[in-house]
Amino acid sequence: MKFFLIGYMGSGKSTVGKLLSEELNYKFYDLDQEIEKEYDLTISEIFSRKGEVFFRKAERKMLDKLINLEEDAVVSLGGGTPCYGDNMELIKSSDTVRSIYLKLNIQTLLERLQREKTERPMISHLQTRELLEEFIRKHLFERGFYYNQSELILDCNGKDPSVIVHNLMENLR
Questions:
Q1: Which of 93, 101, 114, 131 is deepest in the core (most CB within 10 A)?
Q2: Superfamily of structural domain 2-104+150-172
């Protein structure tokens, strides 16, 4: 079995994913890190040197690889992964994958991303809190359709990662 964590950037997919993988004694994969290893470039470098189309093709290729793993795993997807092409359909159609949406409200995402803005190329250019909030609102509106197709939707607002993992363990039994 593989558990794919889905959600907006800053929703805790990597943090929760690592903790969940430890709890389950499963291997942990971060889709973006796997792409970076494959191409020996950061995601930012891939976007700037090769473009978004190249990145989305690489993302799809890596998604296929992770869906077809022969081992139990927890996988943290990129925030946009489920929203491109037929990626979400591919995830949903796999008998060995359960998709989990780590859902946060705009205010919580805004607080987290405001602190992490400089490390995130997609939002580092947004100069004001208002611009960042507008950016998040727009993306969540566009991506919600895909995120909400997840098999399990977990409200993570105001919850510590360890509590989220505990909640997930209860839901996965």
A1: 101
A2: P-loop containing nucleotide triphosphate hydrolases (3.40.50.300)
